[in-house]
Amino acid sequence: MSALNRTTPFLMAALLVAGGLACRKPAPAAQPEQPKAAPAPAPAPAMSDAVKPDDTQKRLAEQAAEAARKAEAAYQQAAMAALQDVHFAFDKADIMDADKPLLTAIAAFMKQYPKANVFIDGNCDERGTVEYNLALGERRAHSAMAYLVGLGVPAGRLTTTSYGKEKPVCMESVESCWVRNRRAHFSLLK
């Protein structure tokens, strides 16, 4: 066999490989990588949609103020319900059995509201001298205070005075008015 015949299969294979390479498209030239653009920032939410920090603080302050108003209203309402006058027999400073529940309600109010300080003024009807009625009014105020202290109210939260016959709630000179004027009156100290 001639040398040509022996090399032919190799040549053909080489031509096929070369031809196949020649038919292929050249690979695109590598282009330098360009930096990617940063993503566009998200649009800022509209002011009405966003809650600004100072709006949150303002809202919390308003809620706290509303809660304080409601608590104060409840306190004042409880005070009005509890702070009822107690009455006394003529020329006496003893707590009557009928008025003990009123004093118990005052004590309960004061225990529920530790900020409550109460002013107790003793009063008398128009009969008797000014000096006598001032002393009797003082005894009545102290009697009411002593009863409240006995129920557990701290004495430091109670203040007493006497108006004698100077602050009547009824001005007629009849027994039905005199009964109303013989009293210990309770009010909140501001």
Explained architecture:
With 190 residues, this protein is an alpha+beta fold. A four-stranded mixed sheet has the order 1-4-2-3. The protein has a domain at 73-188: 60s Ribosomal Protein L30, Chain: A (2-Layer Sandwich), CATH 3.30.1330. The chain is built from five helices and four strands; from the N terminus they run ααβαβαβαβ. The chain starts with a helix and ends with a strand. α3 crosses α4 (130-150). It is elongated.
Strand-helix topology:
Layout: H1 3-23, H2 53-82, E1 86-87, H3 100-112, E2 118-123, H4 130-150, E3 158-164, H5 175-181, E4 183-188
Parallel strand pairs: 2-3
Antiparallel strand pairs: 1-4, 2-4
Helix pairs in contact: 3-4
Structural class: alpha+beta
**Integer-rounded radius of gyration:** 49 Å
The CATH architecture designation of one domain is 2-Layer Sandwich
- Name the helicity range: 40-55%
In this structure, how is the largest beta sheet organized?
Answer: 4 strands, mixed
Low-pLDDT residue spans? none
CATH homology group of one domain: OmpA-like domain
CATH topology of one domain: 60s Ribosomal Protein L30, Chain: A
**Topology as H/E string?**
HHEHEHEHE
Tally the helices. Answer: 5
In what range is the share of β-strand residues?
5-15%
| Mean of residue pLDDT values | 84
Question: How many strand units?
Answer: 4
Strand order of the main beta sheet, please? Answer: 1-4-2-3
Distance between the termini: 132 Å
